């Protein structure tokens, strides 16, 4: 049995790693949205975050590892999409640094053209990614949805919403559309919010062209 990270954001970061190419999959801002969605989903599944009028609201008091509960509690009511977008780029670095600190990955830092910071990530034990992928694959193709592990269900929902091809190639997103919808319904409002944010971003990019 291979150990895997406990947190959902850490799991989603590792699922974005392309084992064949031994690098993080290209995704631009999408990875930040997926990781923010994962953090919100984890809080929601544990009851620490609830929903009030289709907006996130503090739930049962508990751990707040990324400070999201404090942010939400200290803000006027805002949409799930707002909290998906907010600080998404910095959040990638937060999760990456956490994984590096805990020994899951190695990070090589350098600067492109001597100016722009760049990071090369290597997963120390590829079996960890394979274990996570296996859980997501079983959630997609295996037992009845009601019996799927909640984090595996959320991994599929977030990967589909974030167009994470290391987990769900486009063909699989089409083929398993209904199953993905069922897993998404189990996972709470954050994954649909990720999908809406990315759809809006794609539409804006298309209109600019």
UniProtKB/TrEMBL annotation:
Organism domain of life: Bacteria
Annotated compartments: Golgi apparatus membrane
Pfam families, per database record: GPP34 (PF05719)
Keyword entries, A-Z: Golgi apparatus, Lipid-binding, Membrane
Protein name: GPP34 family phosphoprotein
InterPro entries according to UniProt: GPP34-like, GPP34-like_sf
Transmembrane segments: none
Predominant cellular place of this UniProt entry's protein: Golgi
Membrane topology: Peripheral membrane protein
């Amino acid at each position: 049995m291979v150990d895997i990270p406990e947190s959902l954001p850490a799991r989603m970061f590792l699922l974005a790693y392309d084992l064949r190419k031994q690098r993080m999959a290209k995704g631009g801002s999408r990875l930040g949205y997926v990781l923010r969605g994962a953090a919100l989903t984890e809080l929601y599944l544990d009851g620490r975050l609830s929903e009030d009028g289709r907006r996130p609201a503090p739930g049962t008091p508990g751990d707040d590892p990324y400070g999201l509960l404090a942010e939400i509690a200290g803000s006027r009511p805002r949409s799930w999409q707002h909290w998906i977008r907010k600080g998404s780029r910095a959040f990638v670095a937060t999760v990456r640094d956490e994984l590096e600190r805990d020994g899951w990955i190695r990070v090589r830092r350098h600067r492109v053209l001597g100016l722009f910071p760049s990071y090369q990530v290597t997963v120390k034990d590829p079996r960890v990614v394979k274990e996570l992928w296996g859980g997501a694959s079983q959630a997609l193709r295996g037992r009845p949805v009601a019996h799927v592990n909640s984090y595996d269900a959320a991994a599929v929902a977030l990967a589909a919403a974030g167009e994470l091809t290391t987990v769900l190639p486009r063909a699989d997103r089409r083929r398993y559309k209904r199953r993905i919808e069922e897993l998404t319904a189990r996972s709470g409002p954050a994954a649909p919010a990720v999908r809406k944010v990315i759809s809006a971003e794609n539409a804006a990019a298309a209109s600019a062209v």
